[in-house]
Amino acid sequence: MFELNEKVIKYLDNMKEQTFSRLKELAQIPAPSGNEDLRVEFVKKWFENIGAKKVIVDQAKNVIVPINCEDKNDIVVFMAHTDLVFPDTTPLPYSEDDEYIYCPGIGDDTDCLNSLMTVAQYVIENDLTPPCGIMFLANSCEEGLGNLKGIRQIMKDYAGRISAVYTFDGSYTHLVNRCVGSHRYEVKFTTEGGHSFGAFGNRNAIAAMSDLICNLYKCEVPKKENCKTTYNVGIVEGGTSVNTIAQEAKMLYEYRSDDKDCLAIMQNFFNKEIEKAKESGKAEIEVKLIGDRPCGGDVNKDALDYMVNLAVSVSEKYSGQKCVINSGSTDANIPMSLGVPSVCVGSHIAYGAHTREEKLKKESIPIGLKIIAEIVLSYFN
Ligand SMILES: [Zn+2]
User: Fold this and answer.
1) pTM, entire model
2) Do residues 71 and 117 lie in contact, with contact meaning Cβ atoms separated by under 8 Å?
């Protein structure tokens, strides 16, 4: 089995300071999904400065650094996302103490991207040539309503050429090898409304929406062994005042499953309920699909097992901590739905992802560097 040699370990050791100071810089650059331009510019310039022969920014705002990819139909992708859940467009608040770095997005996914950059730097500076094609990728739109736009673009532009995808995201105590697919909808109700007293009896958009919500919550999720299926109404809004029959109401609804048959059953159920609601005539109803993450497709089990074993064993070796395997909704959803084996692994210990209190344990950074390096460099053997 491949192991990091003295030279690499020494290199990573020497790069600790540089990696750390770049993390501090990168972490403060705002990058809401779809508006990652400032981070894209930073990452692109940085790769050009360290001597990457080719750096591409595509229409989805992915930064792509291909190594030996010309004419190759066997490309392994190593990626981490640039976008954050935070809408900030001004520098993000950054602070640290002896133990932690505090910054929104520091763990999800700034540190993973930053450590991947250091490993890519080793490859580029040493002009390493892998037997397959390798793509280093800083992708856009992983979070929320970004709807995985970045990785979708890559799988489209390199269709049929990508053989494996490693996405570095989150803590090294978790690995995702199974995709949670989801559909997210905005459902809008409109009626003529009117004065609550004078026009009493007119249709009420909120009452119509409540009916639908009650019916959606009568759903019994499909039961299938080892599968989990869920649903949620996350936001409701509407109405004008206490003495107005509501003319408009809106809700956000999603369902999720790690099994594609169960996801299809949920879709069927939702469509039927919408049809029933429309037929009732209680309101005009408009449904907008605002998120669509597919479940895994037919993936070669041996190929996926190889990747899972590699990532778990490397992670546990360097961290000394158990790496738990579970299902999740990540950039891996898209390649997996297309049958390309993919795993999502992390590079640190962090707490409070998706909150402004997010913090990253400093001493976990060099551990993550080694984890990423050993996974990546095993493909250069
Ligand atoms: Zn993430």
Assistant:
1) 0.88
2) no
